[in-house]
């Protein structure tokens, strides 16, 4: 038994049929296109994560500045 009840020989036969239908050049092109799409998707996700981290850093800095200003004003009032 192989993957989910499919034997290795069945996978080989399916692969041969796919190669005969599409040809190796078209399969290679489809693989390249798929790889490029996945790479672009990952790049977009990482870009969004970087933007979110930058926003979080700015908010954290603002919070720190406000706390510092609050402490200064408390000391001035004392």
Automatic annotation (TrEMBL):
<dbReference type="InterPro" id="IPR006312">
    <property type="entry name" value="TatA/E"/>
</dbReference>
<keyword id="KW-0472">Membrane</keyword>
<keyword id="KW-1133">Transmembrane helix</keyword>
<keyword id="KW-0812">Transmembrane</keyword>
<protein>
    <recommendedName>
        <fullName>Sec-independent protein translocase protein TatA</fullName>
    </recommendedName>
</protein>
<dbReference type="GO" id="GO:0033281">
    <property type="term" value="C:TAT protein transport complex"/>
</dbReference>
<feature type="transmembrane region" description="Helical">
    <location>
        <begin position="6"/>
        <end position="24"/>
    </location>
</feature>
<keyword id="KW-0811">Translocation</keyword>
<dbReference type="GO" id="GO:0008320">
    <property type="term" value="F:protein transmembrane transporter activity"/>
</dbReference>
<comment type="function">
    <text>Part of the twin-arginine translocation (Tat) system that transports large folded proteins containing a characteristic twin-arginine motif in their signal peptide across membranes. TatA could form the protein-conducting channel of the Tat system.</text>
</comment>
<keyword id="KW-1003">Cell membrane</keyword>
<comment type="similarity">
    <text>Belongs to the TatA/E family.</text>
</comment>
<comment type="subunit">
    <text>The Tat system comprises two distinct complexes: a TatABC complex, containing multiple copies of TatA, TatB and TatC subunits, and a separate TatA complex, containing only TatA subunits. Substrates initially bind to the TatABC complex, which probably triggers association of the separate TatA complex to form the active translocon.</text>
</comment>
<dbReference type="GO" id="GO:0043953">
    <property type="term" value="P:protein transport by the Tat complex"/>
</dbReference>
<dbReference type="InterPro" id="IPR003369">
    <property type="entry name" value="TatA/B/E"/>
</dbReference>
<dbReference type="Pfam" id="PF02416">
    <property type="entry name" value="TatA_B_E"/>
</dbReference>
<keyword id="KW-0813">Transport</keyword>
<keyword id="KW-0653">Protein transport</keyword>
């Amino acid at each position: 038994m192989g993957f989910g009840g499919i034997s290795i020989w069945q996978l080989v036969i399916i692969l041969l049929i796919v190669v005969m239908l599409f040809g190796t050049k078209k399969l290679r092109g489809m693989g390249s296109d798929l790889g490029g799409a996945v790479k672009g998707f990952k790049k977009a996700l990482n870009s969004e994560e970087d933007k979110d981290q930058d926003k979080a850093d700015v908010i954290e800095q603002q919070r720190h500045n406000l706390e510092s200003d609050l402490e200064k004003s408390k000391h001035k009032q004392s």
